[in-house]
Amino acid sequence: MERISVIGAGTMGRGIVYSCATAGFLTAVQDISEESLETCRSYINKQLERSIEKGLVTAEEAEAAKGRISYSTSIQETVAEAELVIEAVLEVMELKMDIFKQLDQFAPSTAILATNTSTMSPTEIAAQTSRPERCIALHFFNPVPKMKLIEVICGLETSEETIRKSFEFGKAMGKECVKINEFPGFAVSRMNCLIGNEAMNMVMEGVGSIEDIDKAIKLGLNHPMGPLELADLVGLDTRLRNMEYLYKTLGEKYRPCPILVKYVKAGRLGKKSGSGFYNYN
Q: Which of 22, 43, 49, 268 is 20 to 30 A away from residue 15, measured at CA?
């Protein structure tokens, strides 16, 4: 596998693009927004500059990685020669299904189509295509260049060959893969959403300050990041969409905390908007 296409140049998309390009893959990225593509380009250049400063790559290797990336607003152009397409757009089922219909139309018939969804059904998404056996979920974690895990989630008709190739792709990126059978929230998001939602409930109930609750979880459970800090990094709007989906599919224990709903309505979306549970301005 040599040619990877990424649909969506947001936080997850650009992290996947960076990781693919530095692993040696020819990587094409598509987004409907020129601004998002330019932000993606700036992010990748900045990450490579930091890697040079830290001695992780040479200037020549960084330039080679940049040269392996192409940018476009056209899905048809982006996936025309892809062997693997990774969709990394918003957690909105209708949007993902629409994109998979386009991918099925424009990507080579032999290409694997993967969704980076953290909670949603790859079976339902794959059903929009004529190749459900070549569809899968590859759940990367934020920030993609640093996080070692990929959850490989199999849909109802995902073939063993598609699973094998997905594991080979993950290994080539220097990631560890785990195979998870499809169920809402998979393994990590299902647990992570519960922990984060309970931390938000504790803030609302006055159990402790935001800082102290995060500190308690980090030091008491040996988590590298507090659950409220992590929710800000993921994006509170994204977390709310995940919680709403899990509440709908798994029931009452996933009901979104009212403070999460309130923050999203107020435009406090976390790090990307400048404020969430913490202030980043």
A: 268
The answer to whether 98 is a known ligand-binding residue is no
pLDDT of residue 79: 98
Amino acid 252: pLDDT: 96
Which residue in this structure is represented by tokens 């040599």?
2
| Residue 232 is labelled as binding a ligand | no
pTM, 2 dp? 0.87
What local confidence, expressed as pLDDT, does residue 42 receive?
97
206 annotated to bind ligand: no
pLDDT, averaged across the chain: 96
**24 annotated binding-site participant:** no
Q: Give me the residue spans of the domains in the chain.
A: 3-181, 189-273
- 189-273, CATH topology level: N-(1-d-carboxylethyl)-l-norvaline Dehydrogenase; domain 2 (1.10.1040)
Tens digit of each residue's pLDDT (9 = 90 or more) over 13-54 = 999 999 999 999 999 999 999 999 999 999 999 999 999 999
267 is in an annotated binding site: no
